[in-house]
Automatic annotation (TrEMBL):
Keyword terms of this UniProt record: FAD, Flavoprotein, Oxidoreductase
Pfam families, A to Z: FAD-oxidase_C, FAD_binding_4
Assigned protein family: Belongs to the FAD-binding oxidoreductase/transferase type 4 family.
InterPro entries: FAD-bd_oxidored_4_C (IPR004113), FAD-bd_PCMH (IPR016166), FAD-bd_PCMH-like_sf (IPR036318), FAD-bd_PCMH_sub1 (IPR016167), FAD-bd_PCMH_sub2 (IPR016169), FAD-linked_Oxase-like_C (IPR016164), FAD-oxidored/transferase_4 (IPR051264), FHA_dom (IPR000253)
Protein name, entry field: FAD/FMN-dependent dehydrogenase
Entry GO MF terms: FAD binding; oxidoreductase activity
Domain (FHA) ranges: 152-200
Length: 450
């Protein structure tokens, strides 16, 4: 029996495809910049089916690339070896919200937006938010330990996961769930799969922590002439009780959103900071007091009611809409000490001007954690020049004490640069863990390791 026939036997004929057009469409990453090749697509409908699919692929000697919402920005879902594409899109069960314990159980293929809707209907909130909420799936978000717009308040995805089911490379399923809040029984296996980028197993189900919804919010966008002044304000805000969001946007991003989607910055300044405070009492006075000490370029724009807050958030969220207006952007997702943000912005701009003079560098991101997204818009380079620029940027980040990868993971795009952020012994330990779970290396073979 061929592998295709075996997979049809496991999941049914409607959930296996070898159509060349379908596979081609699924073998390109979210940015449109990186392409691979796949042999077939399989869409299992349960944890047990996922496990059976993995066992069949392992026995057949086939490589497997796992795909969720395919919003990876580091080619984490791009197959390189005529792989079997294992999609989690049918794992869409959404359980009832446990209001008393503030938790919900969902399938790995459930979108972030669906989790947010379920939480909101129960008067709660989910702690992670992304611009790609309508397509990003919670399984993929856990696999990359995604951060996003609310990380400064609630933490990364790993801090929201309190249980999960994982199909292992040998075709078994680990079901790690607990009804108690403190459970130190044995190894913390669940956390091992958070941020592993699908290299150790396929997450199929998650128990997610929910949070009380704040009664009051106040949002502001502030303009700064000087990036150091913005970082100084950001450092002060991130230590405040009630901080809910802290986002940096540069004026080049605002110029693009104004030109292409009609969303203009409401303040003057080369740099903008979106701040949101939330709590059970009115936060407006606390915001005003904090801004008194900030070196602003002018008066901030403040939103107290929901409609005004939404308008201010458009400034940040519209950035994602314009990054591809000149074709696929070249993306750098980095984590830096706050003290290195200004040197990075200056030196990165100089590097781009020297090696990609036609590109427009756009910088934005989660300044509270030093997690920034540098996007080179209108960046058309040959392969060698792009590789040279990418490597130089990674060296710049590492030289400033940063991490070459942050909330987007390593994927295949950054695997050659892991040694800039991890020691040889660290990498050897990670390889040992990978070999223990997946000795033949067939699961997500292009990701993380070369």
């Amino acid at each position: 029996m061929s592998l295709t026939e075996r997979l049809v036997q496991i999941v049914g004929p409607g959930y296996v495809s070898t159509d060349a057009d379908v596979l081609a469409g699924l073998s390109v990453d979210h940015t449109g910049r990186y392409r691979g090749r796949a042999g077939l697509l399989v869409r299992p409908g349960s944890a047990d089916e996922v496990a059976d699919v993995l066992r069949a692929c392992r026995d057949a000697g086939a490589y497997v690339t796992v795909q969720g919402g395919r919003t990876s920005l580091v080619a984490g879902t791009v197959p390189e070896h005529d792989d079997v594409l294992l999609s989690t899109e049918r794992l869409r069960d959404v359980g009832d919200v446990d209001v008393l314990e503030r938790r919900i159980r969902v399938g790995a293929g459930v979108t972030l937006a669906a989790v947010q809707r379920a939480a909101s209907a129960a008067g709660l909130v989910f702690g992670v938010d992304l611009a790609a909420r309508d397509s990003a799936t919670v399984g993929g978000m856990a696999s990359t330990n995604a951060g996003g717009l609310r990380t400064v308040r609630y933490g990364n995805m790993g801090e929201q996961v309190i249980g999960l089911d994982v199909a292992l490379p040998d075709g078994t399923v680990v079901r790690r769930h607990s009804q108690v809040r403190m459970d130190n029984t044995g190894y913390d296996l669940a956390s091992l799969f958070i941020g592993a980028e699908g290299t150790l197993g396929v997450i199929t189900t998650l128990d997610l922590r929910l949070h009380p919804a704040p009664r009051s919010r106040v949002t502001a966008v502030c303009g700064f002439a000087d990036l150091d002044a913005l970082v100084e304000a950001g450092r002060a805000f991130r230590e405040m009780d009630g901080i809910a969001a802290l986002e940096l946007i540069d004026a080049r991003a605002s110029a693009l959103t104004a030109e292409h989607v009609g969303v203009s910055a409401p303040v003057e300044g080369a740099w903008q900071l979106l701040v949101e405070l939330a709590g059970d009492t009115d936060q407006t006075e606390r915001l005003a007091e904090a801004l008194d000490d900030a070196r602003l370029a002018g008066e901030p724009a403040v939103g107290v009611d929901a409609a005004a807050q939404q308008r201010l958030w458009q400034v940040r969220e519209a950035v994602a809409e314009v990054l591809g207006v000149y074709g696929p952007p070249l993306k750098f997702d980095v984590s830096l000490p706050l003290s290195a943000i200004h040197p990075f912005a200056t030196q990165a701009a100089d590097l781009v001007a020297a090696q990609a003079p036609d590109a427009i560098p756009v910088l934005f991101g989660h300044v509270g954690e030093g997690n920034l997204h540098l996007n080179l818009v209108r960046c058309v380079l040959d392969a060698d020049t792009e590789h040279a620029l990418y490597s130089a940027m990674m060296e710049l980040i590492a030289g400033l004490g940063g991490n070459v990868s942050s909330e987007h993971g390593v994927g295949s795009r950054k695997r050659d640069y892991v040694s800039m952020s991890r020691s040889d012994n660290d990498i050897a330990a990670m390889r040992a863990v990978k070999a223990a779970f997946d000795p033949t290396g067939y699961l997500n073979p292009a990701v993380l390791f070369d």
